[in-house]
Amino acid sequence: MTQNTTPQPSAPSVIPSEQVREQAILPWKIAIRITLRGLKIRLGRSLITMSGVVLGIAFLMSVLTSEGLKSGLADESRTNTEVLRLFKLVEGELGSIPNHKIAVLVSRPITGRHRIRLMEKLASQADDGAICMYWTQPDTLTPATETAPGQTPFPPGKKFRFISDFQELCRDAHLLVLFDEEMPLLSTDTLAASLKLMAQPVVLDYYYGRYDLSGLQTIDPRIQYASLSYQMSPEEIVRAEKLNARNRARRIWITVISMLVTVIGIANAMLMSVTERIREIGTMKCLGALSGFVVKLFLIESFLLGVVGAVLGTAIGFLVPFVAYLLSAGTQMVVSSAPFGHIAIAGVQSAIAGTVLAIIAAIYPAIVAAKMVPADALRTNV
Amino acid sequence: MPDTATALTDQEKRDVLHFTQKQEHRRVVARAQAVKKLYRMGKIEVHALRGVDLTVFAGEFLAIMGPSGSGKSTFFNMIGGLDKPSSGKVFIDEVDIAQLDAFELAWLRCRKIGYIFQSFNLIPVMTCLENVMLPMTFAGVTHEEAFERACEILRTVGLGHRLTHKPPQMSGGQQQRIAVARALANRPAIVLADEPTANLDMKTGADIIDLLVRLTKHMGVTVISATHDMKMLSMCNRVVWIRDGTCDRIEERKNIKIQVGEMTSATEGAHSH
Predict the structure, then answer these.
(1) How would DSSP label each residue in A6-25?
(2) Which one has a higher pLDDT value, B168 or A212?
């Protein structure tokens, strides 16, 4: 008898129990090494499995992206129509934008598609320095005399002047734009007094009724007043709500279907890649692998395939519809309207979903196979 | 036998006989005690084993014979710790394997038992060398040492020149040599060979048997083999006949007459083909 590695004890129990636990658990390092080598060796098969994940996630992501881009474009064109309506109104009153002083009351950096588009349009046509701003910083409520770095209420600063006195701001102005979202900065009386100083009191209101401007009209009959909050008739509201509901239902339906397609596609790819290796798992167990180690191998493998596949899928799923929209709707239009924030969130979500799904779909059969007695696993034919 | 690397010398053949004669005084390495196995296939119950008793001694070469469906493979799996009996006990090195937890069972399979299968069961994507290194990796052997040892064993089985080839590129005989090398990688006490020659032609099968006998005898390893192969029978010390899930009888090899691949003895109806 030659037993070189393990000394043969004469006592009945041959299994050194402390040693067993120490040595049976293989470290992650070795598991990762084995997995990477396995992935490299079966590169072709791994790529096919991964392409299942890539396609699934790319499909989901492209649906989400094109939905986002489409609604962004719809918003943009609706906004443009609205801004154009207001602009026509202003032009109708003033004749033209150049040669007129424009006063803007603003309490915080201008956000929102409507406001930004309107300001862009005004800035593009007004004379240099013709747009004056009365800007109170929201924390101090003190009017700014000049813009503090990084605190500009509106990005392109070239054409703006800052005036710290509201009456001074309104003096000889032709158009007053009210962006006061935080709180009414001025009393109605001050507003009324200031409006009287204007050369031609045309007021665009973003207050949504915080000031009673209809009352002001009785003070000065010259006042032309328009609100950006488009007032819809009750029938229009009902129709819009119905349309909204239909669109939302359609969007949910498409998202759910594409999610299902993704889930089934990925689960199928991963399931196949594991079940065809059940005999291999049985063999490994015969060679002394613990179930935990086999599961560990598949966990690492499916994680790697899942992450790479999901990220790749997300990138493809974003780029394809994005480029398609760029070509069909025009770069300027798409870039300015795309809800990149939402698309980014959808991207992160689908990448995570893809990874998790890939892991679950691979780990479940791996656990089942690893728990089988080796005899059954070896008998399995796929 | 033209292949001198694998053929048995007369001395080795005498040694085999010597083991046979001395086996009564040897240590018991595996023991089956009233082992029963019941498979449920839907509503039908299949009694694969109806109570088998067997004692295997250290260093002997034991053949398990029996027609297909006799429960031979099932019994083989039981004694190798690959399956659990429905009732009865299996002891390996006097340890009841039913009492072992997953860790201990893995330890046992890893270091005490080497497996050789009919269909080789190599990991197809791993090279010859990696296949042999795998059980050593599981045993916690360092990469360098495993590499050295695997090379050495593969040279011994005559595959020193094909270390980086993958199993599918190799012939059945060569694949089974890898399997033999893998089974012996951790220097086990028992080698279980499940019809190791069934997928091979006569000549290759004979080579594998010679190799197996030569290596295991050299290392003092006990071999338990399920087989139909007459060549295998001629090499073994004892033959266990399994029939209808029971142990029909156990015979010393010297009591069986084997003539040119045919069997003429009191063993009626044991051949299944």
Answers:
(1) S---SSS----HHHHHHHHS
(2) B168
Which stretches in chain A have pLDDT values below 50? 1-12, 149-150
- Tell me: the pLDDT tens digits for B200-229? 888 888 889 988 888 888 888 899 998 888
The per-residue pLDDT for B176 is 93
Say what the pLDDT of residue B19 is.
61
- CA distances (Å), A317 to each of A69, A103, A114, A358, in order? 13, 45, 30, 17
3-state secondary structure of A104: strand
How many CB pairs (< 8 A) connect A and B?
Answer: 104
Q: Is A113 exposed, middle or buried (0-12, 13-18, 19+ CB in 10 A)?
A: middle
How far lies A103's CA from each of A96, A177, A194, A246, in Å? 15, 6, 11, 42
Q: Report if residue B89 sits inside a domain.
A: no
* Residue A344 contacts B where some CB pair is shorter than 8 Å: no
In a domain, B86, yes or no: no
Report which of A54, A59, A52, A58 is spatially closest to residue A267, judged by C-alpha positions: A52
Tokens of B242: 């399994």
Alpha-carbon gap, residue B73 to B79, rounded angstroms: 10
- Residue type (1 letter), A234: P
Domain ranges of chain A: 25-74+236-379, 94-199
Residues of chain B numbered 166-225 and touching chain A (CB < 8 Å):
182, 186-187, 189, 219-220
- Quote the CA–CA distance of B114 and B224 in Å, as a whole number: 10
What pLDDT was estimated at residue A317? 94
Domain residues for B212? 10-24+58-80+106-259
DSSP for B125-171, written as a single string: TS-HHHHHHHHHHHTT--HHHHHHHHHHHHHHTT-TT-TT--GGGS-
Q: Is the pLDDT of residue B266 over 50?
A: no
In a domain, B137, yes or no: yes
Residue B7, both tokens: 């053929």
Distance, in angstroms, between A365 CA and closest chain B CA? 19
- The total number of structural domains in chain B stands at 1
At A11 the pLDDT is: 39
- Across A131-285, the runs of DSSP E, i.e. the strands, are 131-135, 160-162, 175-179, 202-205, 224-227
CATH number of the domain that residue B149 is part of: 3.40.50.300
